[in-house]
Design brief:
single chain; mainly beta
């Protein structure tokens, strides 16, 4: 069973930074893509950023230029560096590992709260 464990969330003031980590129980190269998603209260879960095994990245328009997804292959860990945080970034952030079109795995989520 694949396990993803997120960490690094917390409370930060607007304009501040946080780095989220997602530790994966197996090599991240066994997945086609890794991603970060978020869900704010009363809203649907939305894509924040993805990183393919080939190194391609994709970001939601709302975070482009502020967030960066990266990985440490040796640690089987994916990161989300979040800068210039805004109150509207407040959400539970989830890590997702997509093995293929039929199999994907989620972490338990980490809360990010940005105060104005």
């Amino acid at each position: 069973q694949v396990k993803l464990v997120e960490s690094g969330g917390g409370l930060v003031q607007a304009g501040g930074s946080l780095r989220l980590s997602c530790a994966v129980s197996e090599s991240i190269f066994s997945f086609n893509a890794m991603g970060w998603y978020r869900q704010a209260p009363g809203k649907q879960r939305e894509l924040v950023a993805t990183l393919t095994s080939g190194g391609s990245t994709n970001y939601a328009d709302s975070v482009k230029g502020r967030f960066t997804i990266s990985r440490d292959n040796a640690k089987n860990t994916v990161y989300l560096q979040m800068n210039s945080l805004k109150p509207e970034d407040t959400a539970v952030y989830y890590c997702r590992a997509e093995r293929d079109r039929w199999a994907a795995y989620w972490g338990q989520g980490t809360q990010v709260t940005v105060s104005s």
